[in-house]
Amino acid sequence: MREVSIDPIPLDRLAGLLDDDRVQNLLRHADRARSLLDGRVVWNVSATATGGGVAEMLQALLAYGRGAGVDTRWLVLDGQPEFFKLTKRIHNALHGKDGAGRTFDDGDKKRYDDVLADNLEGLKEHVREGDIVLLHDPQTAGLVAGMREVGACVIWRSHIGKDARDDVTDGAWQFLRPYVEDADGLVFTRQAYVPEWVDPDRCWLIPPSLDPFSTKNCDLSEDEVLAALRVAGLLDVDEGAGAGADLSFTRRDGSEGTLRPHDDLVEQGGPVPGDARVVVQVSRWDHLKDMQGVLRGFTAHVSDMPDDVHLMLVGPDVSGVSDDPEGQEVLDECRSLWNDLPEPARRRVHLCVLPMDDTDENAHLVNALQRHASVVVQKSLVEGFGLTVTEPMWKGRAVVASRVGGIQDQVVDGESGLLLADPEDLDDFAGRLAALLDDDDQMRRLGENARERVREHFLGDRHLVQYVELFAKVCEGVSR
Known about the structure:
The chain is an alpha/beta fold. The chain contains 17 helices and 18 strands. The strands form four sheets. Strands 1-3-2-4-5-6-7 form a seven-stranded mixed sheet, sandwiched between helices. It is globular and about 65 Å long.
């Protein structure tokens, strides 16, 4: 196991965005947390420290926790490719989208148990009786029993799920249930994701949140955006665009980084013309994010789109995401689709991969891309929550997203974004996108309302308060 370094961030940083009542509520809960957790460590265990929404949320929440005087720490699993292939199957099955996940055999169980048995030995070197251990997603479920034996308060947190059960989701839960059902607390994003066997007294609903001051979400000027995208080779503008703008960014540890020049981030389509308006989807190369469907829908109706609109599909360099083995396959499918396009459509579609060797630079580029976009798309087939929706909403961008999972809790259709009733209806997707791009007033109104909705419901103060209440209840109820 590897520990991730976390530097504290003071809670005061959030105060300027909050009403007085929210500030006081946050400070009261911080006082309660310091008293409740005095002498305890709150351990978080996840599959990876980079490349996904869970890692991003943990980085921010743990930093604020440390800033509040709570000893919060983060450990990352050791695992081999075969283990992560298995847990990806479980992940997809919980979304109901992988027939191979319908059943899991004894070989799967042995592979899973062997990897987590090794990790458990490493975890026992850190955790003491009375500590709180927060285990994230299917990769960590097999650690619950071992941590309870140590005498820790154990919480298992599922960040994924599907609104309607089926035999595929049931197969995944049948595999996970023996590992997690005896946890002291179980946390889900939505009520619809909670299996019927979960004890209501030990079940908590806590949606994710966004850190508005992170590298991915902090304010950038228009010149800083243009300069970043030009230097990264993502935008074809003259050398004067953003001239003199700062190319630096603040890293998670508070140090300063500087954007490196790149010429290899656009896989297909070349850099976007500087005078084009851009529709962007930023996500993992994952079948459930349906990058292929976005590409098909846009290009099938490219003649209906305003002439100045281009599409950017943006994901990570797949070699840098260790826990997502299907990334290369999805990227290759998108490359093949692009190669088969007629030349006029091909010129208006751009496949981009962002570097993962520097996660803070990656976040800075995502920030610039979302701010440069006219519309941000998240056409997921299923989605546990979707920080890639929350992020552009905070930046005041109009969002077109699927009416699935946690996205429908974030976006009020027609008010703070547009929701697609059927994400696989590519004609409807393209039609609504084209109409929105022809309506500047609607894009502006949706963006303004989106930012306010995030401020009201999805900032870190709400998330931190809910965790303090969870820890208090769990610690109070544990007697072994």
